[in-house]
Amino acid sequence: MSGSGRRITDEEINELVSKLQSLLPESRRRNTGRASASKLLKETCSYIKSLHREVDGLSDRLSGLMATMDSNSPQADIIRSLLRS
């Protein structure tokens, strides 16, 4: 995988696919053996897109909340400190 030119083995690919499958909520719920690599990659892309949508939605909600909040309030200070972490 590094720049050494070494080929990745089928065993390493299978291990990576298994690790990826364990990270996907849909695959964990299904838990019916190993999915094909192409199906798993499609699920991964779909999951990442849904996470992006969720982050965008939360960001919009937070922006709306901040717009209605007194910028000098203790709550605004807490939110700002959390965003900086």
H/E order of the elements?
Answer: HHHH
What's the total number of strands? 0
Number of domains: 1
Secondary structure tally, helices: 4
The major pleated sheet works out as: none
Overall pLDDT level: 84
Which percent range fits the helix content?
A: over 70%
Low-confidence stretches: none
SS class:
mainly alpha
Form type: elongated
CA radius of gyration is 20 Å
Beta-strand residue fraction = under 5%
Give the gist of this structure.
Keywords: Growth regulation, Transcription, Transcription regulation. The chain is an all-alpha fold and 85 residues long.
Task: Describe the overall structure.
This protein is mainly α and 85 residues long. It has one domain. It is 74% helix and 0% strand. The mean pLDDT is 84. It comes from Musa troglodytarum (fe'i banana). One of its GO terms (molecular function) is protein dimerization activity. Keywords: Growth regulation, Transcription, Transcription regulation. Residues 1-51 form the BHLH domain.
Label this structure with key terms.
85 residues; mainly alpha; elongated; growth regulation
Write the layout of secondary structure elements.
Blueprint: H1 10-23, H2 25-30, H3 37-68, H4 74-84
